[in-house]
Amino acid sequence: MAVEPVGALEMERKFQADDCDDAKKMSKKSFNESKKLWEIAAPAIITAVSQFSIGFVSVAFVGHLGSLELAAISVVQNVIEGFVYGVMLGMGSALETLCGQAVGAERFDMLGIYLQRSCVITLVTSLFLTPFYVFTSPILKLLHQDKRIAEIAGKYAIWVIPQLYAYALNFPVQKFLQAQSKIWVMTIINVVVLVFHIVLNWVLVTKLGHGLLGAAMAGNISWWLVVLAQNIYVISGFFPESWTGFSILAFKSLWNFVKLSLASAVMLCLELWYFTVVILMVGWLKNPEIKVDAVSTSLDLQLWVLMITLGFNAAISVRVSNELGAGRPKAAKFSVVIAVITSTIVGVVFTVAVIATKNYYPRMFSDKPEVLHETSKLSYFLAATIFLMSIQPILHGVAVGAGWQYSVAIINVVCYYIIGLPLGACLGYIANIGVNGIWTGMLVGTLLQTIVLMYKMWKANWRKEAIYAEERIRTYGDQPSQDGIEQTGSRGTSPLPVVT
């Protein structure tokens, strides 16, 4: 029998030791990256879920009043407020870039100016959006929605106009706080208000019997409590460098700010409006009341889960932009891998939970046997959507971090509006499959978009992306000082903000 040389045995042991060391290093690296993601994602998730749950709670209380009331509030939240929410969140998102640049350049004095400029723009935008609330009823009738639902929805929309102006102030303040890593204070404010909102709905809707008006009053009060608490926190002396009081400079350079705000809104709105159009398409079916209730209930639950994955969206956007800005393309790519794996695991958990509770979760929204049955039948479609939407926001976050907003907006248009919705219309109306056909089209568009974005991430040249990031930092990072001389801070060029 041949005897293996001693040198070969020693070499084999060395390879095994190296493999073990590599495994330990990879495990430690993965743990550290996951920890960084969760440090950003956890408070962002809690904040997003708390704010979305304000509307979620209202739907849950109103759903026990009757199917017409449930359909009305669902249509307003998914169509009118979904449209407005997307615009406002997108407009406020311009501060993610500008406040981050100011922090990186150590020009903290500009943060307050940027915040005020953004508030001016979002408040003016809310004025232009107010007619959508005032004319909700004729708009819904023009879109061939059920007349009874449209009439009730029109009244409710007028009652919740104060929430529109709360959105206008909420999102700029949020971005101002996030840029300075003051996320947990914002999170605590939103959680406390959510608890208060539940009690307020119980009092106004259930105990006092004010119905839809009570739900509207509760929503208005709760949203303005969030806004007032966050604004008091900003102006109460906790930010001596970044908030120095109101300034006339807030009204200067508004046009450039508007262009950046609009660019930030495009990609997000294309995403949110996709689900809005689905609700409208279901409303065009025959006898839509029960179908709208079932689909709206399902999408409300899906959007609630989406608020969780949006926390990872914020986290991976920060991680990718930080690593690319620091010239570490391999680290950026590794962050993407860890984020996708983490969010997918979360998605699998929720997918299984939906299927396991398909006969129970609809009871949170309605007591009507017809609505419960119809919602339960859609559970598998909902589970598939939730799984895909656990991955998709991560890919969007990578796009924001790498600066791919325009290309992703084009991908959204093709996958959603050229393929997904027309396919859903063909299956739902021409093939007469109804709600299942419309939702199948939506799923196909979402799946196609996810595949295209995954391919784009996989084929990306991350070294080139790091070079592009360096060019953007050099171009946009510096801010003019008050004496007209460009100032870059103590580090020369201005890196992207590092959130810890």
From TrEMBL:
CDD domains for the chain: MATE_eukaryotic
GO aspect biological process, one term: xenobiotic detoxification by transmembrane export across the plasma membrane
GO function term, MF aspect, one: antiporter activity
UniProt topology in membrane: Multi-pass membrane protein
Alphabetized Pfam families for the sequence: MatE (PF01554)
Keyword terms: Membrane, Transmembrane, Transmembrane helix
UniProt xrefs under InterPro entries: MATE_euk, MATE_fam
Domain of life: Eukaryota
Subcellular localization(s) per the UniProt record: Membrane
Main location: membrane
One Gene Ontology CC term in the entry: membrane
Family the UniProt entry places it in: Belongs to the multi antimicrobial extrusion (MATE) (TC 2.A.66.1) family.
NCBIfam families attached to this UniProt entry: matE
Descriptive protein name: Protein DETOXIFICATION
Gene source species: Nicotiana tabacum
